[in-house]
Write a structure and sequence with these properties.
Blueprint: H1 2-43, E1 46-52, H2 59-74, E2 79-84, H3 95-101, E3 106-109, H4 134-143, H5 146-157, E4 162-167, E5 176-178, E6 192-194, H6 198-205, E7 209-211, H7 218-224, E8 229-230, H8 235-241, H9 243-246, E9 249-252, E10 262-267, H10 268-273, H11 276-310, E11 315-318, H12 321-338, H13 342-365, H14 369-376
Parallel strand pairs: 1-2, 1-3, 6-7, 6-8, 9-11
Antiparallel strand pairs: 3-10, 4-10, 5-9
Helix pairs in contact: 2-11, 4-5, 6-12, 8-11
């Protein structure tokens, strides 16, 4: 009898386990069905149309695509950016207006390209040098109040329907390309020169005749005599333009644009219509692109500088200290007038306070890298 009851008990336990497993399997299947719905929704990707201010083969377009790739991967393919080069929809200097008007969903550009609307724009990329470098000013945007000031300028002061983020602390931009070596600021007097942003005011203050041009128009302008000298950004981008074919004198080191970064902008209505997770991806993918962009820059810029010297016969110089001093004095004169604008002054005060503290730490703490380089590669540096 006991044995029979034990048998019945075992049968009941077996039946219970089978029932449980069937229920669990059914629940799992039901769960899979529930999970399938978002997966189907993800298959219908949102695609944002972004145009850059750069030519299709420009290294800056490569960097824009690095951002787009990270958005795609981080979203699991549910959010994609269709990146287009300059001129695909509008010209390089027109991308901000196109985003504001909704002609483009997004743009990859720099604030110097729209500083004509408000010169404070240049403070978010081509501002005065208070001792802080591009990485430190980008840190000011994230941690020193720059992000709020940028939003105030774009949305409140200018009334633009835009949201923007920043990426890629650009290495100091060279003084540029000249027909002959520039030994002093006097050698630059009267030169017809290309730059953008507040650098235009700075170089004009040093006696140059300055024209603002997007990158793709530089060499044609040089060939037509519209300009005699120019700067753009870096050895890779400059050599992509063919600068080495029209000049053999390249001066590196300058205060005219020593702390710039990319501005990644979105039409505000489009951005705010996206799910919160997509908005977060668009913002934080800029931080991810920061590392990718800078790594690519270090690799390509350094290799292309060596190519310019060793294969193209370009003479590379360290800009003379007297020219740098003249630039700082020109900054002072230009700033004196611009500081009469309360918003401009507010941004400068914020940056100066940040630079005074952050640059002090960095300058006091950083190793003497030139000393170490000279130790291991003696005679390599030309100064």
């Amino acid at each position: 009898m006991t044995k029979h009851r034990n048998s019945d008990s075992k049968n009941e336990q077996t039946t219970s386990r089978r029932t449980f497993l069937r229920s669990a399997t059914g629940a799992a299947a039901g769960g899979s069905a529930l999970l399938a719905a978002p997966n189907i929704a993800r298959a219908q990707s949102t695609v944002l149309k972004m145009q850059g201010s750069w030519g299709d083969q420009s290294i800056f377009s490569e960097m824009a695509r690095q951002y787009a790739d990270r958005v795609d991967v981080m979203s699991g393919g549910s959010l994609k950016i269709d990146y287009l080069p300059a001129g695909a929809v509008v010209q390089a200097f027109q991308v901000q207006d196109a985003c504001h008007d909704g002609v483009l969903d997004a743009a990859h550009t720099v604030t110097a390209y729209w500083y004509g609307k408000n010169k404070a724009a240049s403070l978010f990329g081509t501002g005065p040098v208070f001792g802080a470098n591009a990485a430190q000013i980008l840190a000011w945007i994230h941690f020193g109040g720059g992000k709020d000031l940028y939003r105030e300028l774009v949305q409140d002061v200018l009334g633009l329907d835009l949201v923007g983020f920043f990426a890629m602390p650009m290495p100091t931009q060279p003084l540029g390309w000249f027909k002959e070596q520039i030994a002093s600021a006097d050698d630059m007097q009267g030169l017809k020169y290309r730059t953008v942003g507040l650098a235009t005011d700075i170089m004009q203050g040093m006696g140059l005749s300055v024209t603002q041009l997007p990158g793709g128009e530089i060499i044609p302008a040089l060939e037509r005599g519209v300009i005699e000298a120019f700067e753009f950004n870096n050895p890779t981008a400059d050599s992509q333009f063919g600068a080495q074919d029209v000049s053999k004198h390249y001066h590196m080191g300058s205060y005219h644009q020593a702390a710039e970064f990319f501005e990644i902008i979105f039409n505000r209505d489009t951005f705010e219509s996206l799910p919160a997770e997509h908005q977060a991806i668009l913002e934080h993918a800029a931080e991810a692109a920061n590392t990718a962009n800078f790594g690519l820059a270090m690799d390509r810029y350094s290799a292309d500088l060596q190519k310019l010297v060793n294969e193209d016969g370009v003479n590379v110089y360290r800009t003379d200290a007297s020219i740098l001093q003249a630039q700082l004095k020109s900054w002072d004169r230009v700033m004196e007038g611009l500081l009469q604008d309360p918003f401009f002054a507010k941004v400068v005060d914020s940056q100066k306070a940040w630079a005074e503290r952050v640059a002090f730490y960095d300058i006091m703490n950083q190793a003497d890298y030139k000393l170490a380089y000279d130790h291991y590669f003696p005679g390599k540096l030309p100064f």
